[in-house]
Amino acid sequence: MNEEEAWVEFYKVRQETFDAIKECLEEDGHCKSYEGRFEVDWPNYFDAQDDSVEGWNIHLACYLLGPHRGYDWSGKTFAEAVEKMTGDVRAFIKGDHEPYLERERKQQAEFDAACQWMDENHDRLVAEGSIIEFGFGAREMQ
């Protein structure tokens, strides 16, 4: 998908989201004022210079459709971010939250493993100079 096609797809999914929100509200009027607010963040100057950075971000604020209140998808291009967002939002509309939640659980497990590794290797990394401790709340330097 090229960038122009991505914008067309973005607007299509946005309308599908609005239609699904309208349907939810017809069943139960409980909602948040931010339902269906999409935000697109363009890459900053530095990220735009680096093709390896996922500088494009799409945010959706939507309590009614998905398992949470807010969602973010990033990509190296707008089209990449739209492709990620499209699958999740269309699954949300169908009531299928599991692919999103599974990816979230996997990311959390990876983060937890990295934190555990840092805790286990902290003293060695400081001693060899691989990390430097500074700032408020840092451990005392030995």
Describe this structure in words.
The protein has two domains: 3-96, no CATH class; 97-142. 53% of the residues lie in helices and 12% in strands. It contains four helices and three strands. The protein has helices at 3-27, 45-48, 78-93, 98-127, and strands spanning 37-41, 56-61, 70-75. Strands 1-2-3 form a three-stranded antiparallel β-sheet, with helices on one face. Strand 2 and strand 3 form a beta hairpin.
Condensed summary:
This protein is 53% helix and 12% strand.
What is the total domain count? 2
Q: Mind describing the biggest β-sheet? A: 3 strands, antiparallel
Classify the helix fraction into a percent range. 40-55%
Sheet with most strands: strand arrangement: 1-2-3
Query: Approximately what portion of the residues adopt beta-strand conformation?
Result: 5-15%
List how many beta strands DSSP finds.
3
Can you count the helices? 4
- Overall pLDDT confidence: 88
